[in-house]
Specification:
It is a single chain. The chain is about 30% helix and about 15% strand. With about 300 residues, it is α/β, with parallel strands linked by helices. The chain has one domain (about 15-40, about 80-295): Rossmann fold (3-Layer(aba) Sandwich), CATH 3.40.50. Strands 5-3-6-2-7-8 form a six-stranded parallel sheet, sandwiched between helices. A two-stranded parallel ribbon has the order 1-4. Residues about 1-70 have low confidence and may be disordered.
Length: about 300
């Protein structure tokens, strides 16, 4: 399968080989960069659909999955409803917003890898980062979150933790109001931060108010308390954090200590190999699930 729009790397053998060598040095041997183009079959089937505003958000039934038929997904009665703009999302390459986009298959393959590697516990908080700006980490975090939400009986929380350069609400055309920054600046509680964008089984926290000295805040005990509260409140949810690039902000290393897992997005043909190596050297290697190769500069 040749991927056209998703931005997940399928070719470019030269950089692929180099990145494999980097991964061998700084992550466990089984955690290689993923090549979705090599896996066109065997993906997990989805019941892809969006639930209209105000409608009961019911889980889909599959008779072949014993014990799961009739499962009902949560209704977010305490989360403020906002409306995303599908045209804005599509223009920003958030392709997984549309359940009918065939190019989302690459993200389904990545989802399968993550589900397999986290199936035996070990936590569900996943930090999505990159070595440098412009590698596509935010688009990847958004697309993975939407793809996970369409997995049967799986809920997701997407958090914009890049407080210096908040992008998620812009990519989706959202007017979210309060967000993570307001937790620090105005002592807003966690439930006030969460919004429901009209997508079944998915909620999000935007960046909110602009924050100066964000590294000090995300490295503070308050951030540790917030992450722990998320884990305690939502033990079954996958929680994706979009965070700043590793080599340009101290925020990321502070947040890495609080995360269960880390994904590193690499822009093929754009990111120098030595920068990928530097990023992996400073991140806790035991938490790195792998590298996601992106063929297009997007941020």
């Amino acid at each position: 399968m040749e991927n056209r729009n998703s931005g997940i790397m399928g070719q470019a053998k030269g950089i692929w080989s180099s990145l494999k060598n980097v991964a061998k040095q700084h992550t466990r041997p089984t955690r290689m960069p993923w090549n979705p183009a090599e896996q066109t079959k065997g993906g997990m089937e989805d019941k892809d659909r969006l639930a209209p505003d105000g409608q009961l958000r019911q889980g889909t039934s599959d008779p072949s999955r014993k014990g799961l038929a009739g499962w009902v997904s949560p209704t977010y009665t305490h989360s403020r409803a906002v409306s995303l703009n599908p045209l804005t999302a599509a223009a920003n390459r958030c392709i997984a917003v549309s359940p009918d986009n065939t190019d989302v298959e690459a993200f389904k393959v990545i989802r399968t890898h993550i589900l397999n590697r986290t199936a035996n516990g070990g936590g569900r908080t996943i930090m999505v980062t990159s070595a440098l700006p412009g590698e596509g980490k935010t688009v990847t975090a958004v697309n993975l979150s939407f793809t996970f939400a369409r997995e049967f009986q799986q809920t997701v929380l997407l958090v914009d933790a890049d407080l210096r350069r908040q992008q998620i609400h812009k990519l989706l055309g959202l007017n979210t109001g309060v967000g993570l920054g307001d937790y620090f600046l105005e002592n807003r509680p966690l439930p006030d931060l969460i919004v429901w964008p009209g997508v079944e089984k998915l909620t999000l926290i935007s960046g909110g108010a602009a924050v100066r000295d964000s590294a000090e805040l995300v490295g503070s005990p308050r951030m540790k308390d917030l992450v722990q509260e998320m884990k305690n409140r939502y033990p079954e949810r996958y929680i994706f954090f979009d965070v700043p690039p590793v080599l340009t902000a101290a925020d990321t290393l502070a947040l890495a200590r609080l995360m269960d897992h880390i994904l590193v997005v690499v822009a093929a043909g754009f990111t120098p190999i030595h920068d990928v190596r530097r990023a992996l050297e400073v991140l806790p290697g035991e938490k790195v699930l792998g590298l996601v190769l992106n063929t297009r500069k997007s941020e």
